[in-house]
Write a structure and sequence with these properties.
alpha/beta; three-stranded parallel β-sheet; 4 helices; 5 strands
């Protein structure tokens, strides 16, 4: 399962980076006891992507209420999320890329198989800095 948060400064370049990292991450053993040898593509696993704007939530005010200012606004985030799914499908197998409903309240159950949770994040720079680099 991949919980996918879109940062307010994310671009298609960030999606490409995260796609490569997600598909290339060697998180499973090789069947002979060698840990961290196989990735999702080698194993032929499906990837369930769940849009999750709350990943960029903070508790920043005095009332300790969540603030989601760092998450991209819904309409542009939905567009980038769909592009991310397309990139995963193009780079792997679109039949193995699953997702829920963007922005919907969903009940998702996760069984964490092992001691590993990985954060894959590109470096979120302000748009002004990115434009200078490009």
């Amino acid at each position: 399962m991949a919980l996918v948060g879109i940062h307010e400064n994310d671009s298609e370049k960030d999606l490409e980076y995260c796609c490569r990292r997600l598909l290339g991450a060697k998180l499973w053993d090789n069947g002979n006891g060698g840990q961290w040898r196989h990735g999702v593509k080698t194993k032929g696993f499906e990837i369930l992507c769940v849009s999750q704007f709350t990943l960029y939530g903070t508790l920043s005010n005095k009332k300790w209420q969540p603030d989601y200012k760092l998450a991209m606004k819904a309409l542009p985030a939905k567009d980038l999320y769909q592009k991310f799914l397309e990139q995963l499908g193009h780079s792997y197998d679109k039949e193995k890329i699953l997702d829920g409903v963007f922005g919907a309240m969903m009940d998702v159950e996760l069984v964490n198989d092992g001691p590993v949770t990985i954060i894959i994040e590109s470096d979120p720079q302000p748009r002004s800095e990115r434009n200078e680099e490009e």
